[in-house]
Write a structure and sequence with these properties.
The structure holds two protein chains of two kinds.
Chain A lengths: L4 E10 L2 E11 L4 E5 L6 H8 L7 E6 L2 E2 L5 H8 L2 E4 L11 H12 L4 H14 L15 H13 L5 E5 L7 H18 L2 E5 L3 H6 L3 E6 L2 E7 H5 L4 H8 L6 E2 L2 E2 L2 H12 L31 H10 L2 H8 L1
Parallel strand pairs in A: 3-8, 3-9, 6-7, 7-8
Antiparallel strand pairs in A: 1-2, 1-4, 4-5, 9-10, 11-12
Helix pairs in contact in A: 3-4, 3-5, 4-5
Chain B lengths: L4 H21 L7 H41 L5 H39 L2 H7 L4 H39 L4 H6 L1 H4 L2 H27 L4 H34 L5
The chains are: A alpha/beta, B mainly alpha.
Keywords (chain B): Membrane, Transmembrane, Transmembrane helix
InterPro entries (chain B): Permease_MalE
Protein name (chain B): ABC transporter permease
Chain lengths: 319, 256
């Protein structure tokens, strides 16, 4: 289960404005990856390009042996059946209630009898904790519920790849924690390839196997979680710690001299400004989020759990 | 709308591309019967009452104009013939065009535009469902079907209104009015009017769908899209009406 996504030399611009250029990365099959980046660096555009909603200017995206940037429309719709996408606001169909929304892909794509559809829909609704809200319309429920319903709808066709567009935006910290746990549990259960686009650092530190960072119209870094958490790269350090000092400014970029000075201050141990806004936990080792105890862990998660309970984690606990 | 000189051409091209896509998707199964019926009901619901209310005064204006014109020319016996001709040939396709674009098209555009900015259309594509097949084709067919029926409604209400104003208010002779009905008008007039309505319905729905599916920039974008869709549809419908009328006179031999 799970499909590898291989992106090479991807470039996208709107008119003369380059969004990002030359992005190359591989999302390993069955693993969770997070794409980080300051607001407005084209994270959502990247996600939409991956599912073929936007055509890149250059480069290729290979999924299951097929380059989706060159597929004919008909074949593209076939490949898209591998995907489940959770859009920012859930993107539920406003004219249908939650049950019909979640049943929609099944009714369109399969010839399952209504009783079978009912079983699957209720199972997915149970998974995201929406039992009892079947007959509610999307306009009548909170943003968090819409998100969970959107997730349930993304899950009904048993996708091989699930993309999350800012799953944490507009949710309170407790719900974000639940959602993160849900993402990890799902990954352990269905083994699909996950990509989460976000700027919530707490989630990025705990959830993924791999982290990528988009900044200044390019992919600054993509690699295993620990590599990025330990990275000396100023942009990565600034972002993952939510600092004001560093290359990222309020209006996208700062001038070189100021960056230089701030990095020197940091090097000398002078930290100023608020300690990381959104979900930043500061430096140190962040333990990896593991699937809930009730869930049967596949070998991959067993390995991760063993590693987490190894010497490194204990060292973290001592701090 | 951007002001670059190529933008207009690009939009025109995309609009025609959508029209071709609709044509190409038309035979694809399964046919979305449920959506078609819902949309036909919806478009009919937003257009029937305004159409009836517009066509009564429209028929009356034509009756008044023709009544006074025929009196001036001394051809009162032809007032029935002329008013039927005017209603059937021009008034009813034009009223249909206005209503199908103004009421039906704007409703379709607003609906699709709202879905677009809520990312529903994107979500649908990602779920592997072609929005043209699922949403646009049923709307185009529904709008065409309703336009044809509306054209019939306008013709009936217009002719009845003309009769009422001419006979009851202008004291014309009912017998002469009815007897002259078929002296100028002929059956091809009705077929042409229905064909016009069919084409108008298609154009209105395609333009509305195009504008709705390309709406961007939040709620204001949807408002702009609706506004543009109505304006563009009006222009296209009047041009199409002219062309079809010109062709009609070349193709169908006239009476008398």
């Amino acid at each position: 289960m799970g499909v590898e996504i291989c992106v090479e030399g991807l470039t996208k611009s709107f008119g003369h404005q380059v969004i990002w250029r030359d992005v190359s990365l591989t999302l390993p099959a069955g693993e969770i990856s997070v794409m980080l980046g300051p607001s407005g660096t084209g994270k959502s555009v990247f996600l939409k390009t991956l599912v073929g909603l936007l055509k890149p200017d250059r480069g290729s995206i290979t999924i299951a042996g097929r380059d989706i940037t060159r597929l004919r429309e008909h074949d593209l719709y076939e490949v898209r059946k591998l995907f489940g996408v959770l859009f920012q606001d859930g993107a539920l169909f406003g004219s249908m209630d939650l049950y019909d929304n979640i049943a929609f892909p099944l009714r369109e794509h399969t010839r399952k009898p209504e009783s079978e559809i009912r079983r699957i829909v209720l199972e997915k609704m149970d998974m995201v904790g929406l039992i009892g809200a079947e007959r509610k319309l999307p306009g009548e429920i909170s943003g968090g519920m819409r998100k969970r319903a959107g997730l349930a709808r993304a899950l009904v066709l048993d996708p091989e790849i699930i993309l999350f567009d800012e799953p944490d935006s507009g949710l309170d910290p407790v719900r974000v924690a639940y959602l993160n746990q849900l993402i990890v549990d799902l990954n352990a259960q269905i083994n699909a390839t996950f990509l989460i686009v976000t700027h919530d650092i707490a989630s990025a530190r705990q959830v993924p196997d791999n982290i990528g960072l988009l900044f200044r119209r390019e992919l600054v870094m993509f690699g295993p979680r620990q590599v990025l958490l330990d990275s000396d790269e100023p942009v990565v350090g600034q972002f993952l710690n939510g600092r004001m000092q560093g290359p990222i400014g309020m209006a996208e970029e700062k001038d070189a001299a100021q960056v230089e000075q701030e990095l020197a201050e940091l090097g000398a141990g002078h930290r100023r400004g608020p300690q990381g806004g959104k979900g930043a936990t500061g430096a140190g080792v962040t333990p990896r989020l593991l699937p809930s105890p009730g869930i049967v862990r596949p070998p991959r998660w067993q390995d991760i759990a063993d590693r987490e309970s190894g010497p490194r984690a204990r060292e973290g606990a001592d701090l | 709308m951007s002001l670059s000189p190529t933008a207009g051409l690009r939009h025109t091209g995309s609009l025609f591309a959508l029209a071709l896509d609709v044509l190409r998707t038309l035979p694809r199964r399964p046919f979305q019967a449920r959506e078609f019926i819902q949309q036909a009901w919806f478009v009919a619901g937003v257009t029937i009452l305004p159409t009836a209310l517009v066509s009564i005064p429209f028929g009356a204006v034509i009756a008044l104009q023709i009544g006074s014109l025929t009196r001036q020319l001394g051809a009162q016996s032809f007032s029935g013939a002329a008013s039927v001709l005017a209603v059937l040939r021009e008034a009813s396709p034009i009223v249909t065009a206005l209503l199908i674009a103004g009421a039906g098209g704007s409703a379709i555009c607003a609906d699709l535009g709202a879905r677009k900015i809520r990312e529903e259309i994107d979500a649908m594509e990602v779920l592997g469902i072609d929005p043209i097949h699922r949403l646009v084709v049923p709307r185009v067919l529904a709008s065409m079907a309703v336009a044809v029926l509306l054209n019939g409604l306008v013709s009936v209400v217009g002719v009845a209104g003309g009769y009422f104003f001419n006979v009851v208010l202008q004291h014309g002779t009912p017998g002469a009015y009815l007897a002259s009905f078929t002296t100028l008008a002929q059956l091809p007039d009705l077929w042409t009017a229905e064909l016009k309505a069919l084409v108008f319905g298609a154009i209105a729905a395609i333009v509305a769908s195009y504008k709705g599916l390309t709406a961007k920039g939040g709620p204001k974008g949807v408002g702009d899209a609706v506004n543009q869709s109505v304006v563009i549809t009006f222009m296209l419908l009047f041009v199409t009406n002219f062309v079809m009328t010109a062709v009609y006179f070349q193709v169908v031999p006239q009476r008398g």
